[in-house]
Amino acid sequence: MKKYISILKRTRLFAGVGDSEIELLLPCLSARLCTYKKGEYVLRQGEHLSDIIVLVDGNLHIQKDDYWGNRSILGQISVGEMFGEAYVTPESGAVLNDVVALEDSVVVYFDVKKIITTCSSACRFHATVVQNMFFAISEKNRKLVQKLGHMSKRSTREKLISYLSEEAKRKKSSSFTIPFNRQQLADFLSVDRSAMSNELCKMRDEGLLEFQKNKFTLR
Amino acid sequence: MKKYISILKRTRLFAGVGDSEIELLLPCLSARLCTYKKGEYVLRQGEHLSDIIVLVDGNLHIQKDDYWGNRSILGQISVGEMFGEAYVTPESGAVLNDVVALEDSVVVYFDVKKIITTCSSACRFHATVVQNMFFAISEKNRKLVQKLGHMSKRSTREKLISYLSEEAKRKKSSSFTIPFNRQQLADFLSVDRSAMSNELCKMRDEGLLEFQKNKFTLR
DNA sequence: ACAAGTCCGTTGTATTTACAACAGAAAGAA
DNA sequence: TTCTTTCTGTTGTAAATACAACGGACTTGT
């Protein structure tokens, strides 16, 4: 666990909390470390959850496969990001999506009850963590709304423009690398891969953008 | 303001807080009442926000119109529900969507800073509100994920099935009324109204469901 | 009651997308 | 290297969707 404290320190959840304080907080929040090999499932649709999870190493996808084998990728989780926060309220039911490791990954589980129930005065940074968690969920919420913005576009081209310009804005550069290959991007935007590939090339030919593999440049 | 306390008491945000306590909390949270006539905008895309808002009377839609006039309805807000919570973190930028009153509506603004900064011991229910807000946002998050589930379906029929069966589950009955007319439902699911109308009738002819106006019955 | 406006279903056509299949490029393994 | 496997772009066809347009049912306001 100790080797990941420096990473936890840089996460949203522990912003403003120092190394030594984090070490004190960890047992107070019932922190548990778990490792997953590439391809393993961190969460499965239908499970119940009472923890918030932070990725400290590796890379995860939030996805769902339907009865006909169509895969939807709802999002991607990078090191330092939090997930599972939508399923920890008393009323929330089962987990709606799978979370799968794209590479060997390490996560830390935190008991939500412990987080929201401010404990003894021993850990005075507890309140900071609660506030951080609030901000983190709020931010997540915003991301979901943004994704809904992409998804609500009617055509493949519009979805691509919506997503790519969003990424450009986020990375503050017209050149950026996306965390998806073509199939994954198609699953993320809920479109057909070949149709999307087609559209991307058309847009390139029209001079709207350039790309090499996962690196895109908007014009 | 007083006439809405009984409504606030029944909201998620104030669950477990009594009438008299709410009255004490209101000034402590910088509560401000605002009324909007049918058709007026409560929030506009691009605005900045530092409040959480609760609807205490009326009915609202969260929506966005693009350059070409296509409207997307991201969600609908009923009395007692909270919104705006995604835009109140230090880093969150402008509001991404419009919020418009479908009928004459009344909302209450709460200063977020006041909420998350636990105040003097005078209002001992403050901590409860913080926890409630956490649950409420978490719940909202879940709703967004569910909507993404509908949106990620490829065909109009699948989107309809996804949405309608979700509603049936939520209302715990195979008969239920939806808060949208046809055009609004189409905007909500990001499909063409006539194509959707067509599909609905096909499904009815196949015996999958029945409907009169906004009342649906699944078979 | 009447007029104006809205809502809903229906139809035909043009456009777009999904699906299947394939070939070349790139990446990995033996 | 050579052999696989994966990834990407391309094409043709079938299917689904968007768009425009219209008539009837229902509302609303005068």
Largest sheet of chain A: 4 strands, antiparallel
Q: Helical percent range of chain A? A: 25-40%
Mean pLDDT of chain A: 89
Global Rg of chain A: 19 Å
> How would you write the strand order of the largest sheet of chain A?
1-8-3-6
Explained architecture:
- 2 copies of one chain form a homodimer.
- Chain A is α+β, with helices and mostly antiparallel strands and 219 residues long.
- In chain A, 38% of the residues lie in helices and 24% in strands.
- The first copy, chain A, is built from 7 helices and 11 strands.
- Chain A has a 4-stranded antiparallel beta sheet. In chain A, strands 2-7-4-5 form a 4-stranded antiparallel beta sheet. A 3-stranded antiparallel beta sheet of chain A has the order 9-11-10.
- In chain A, strand 4 and strand 5 form a beta hairpin.
- In chain A, helix 4 packs antiparallel against helix 5.
- The longest helix of chain A has 26 residues.
- Chain A starts with a helix and ends with a strand.
- The mean pLDDT of chain A is 89.
- At the A-B interface, helix 4 of A face helix 4 of B.
- The structure holds a DNA duplex (30 and 30 nucleotides).
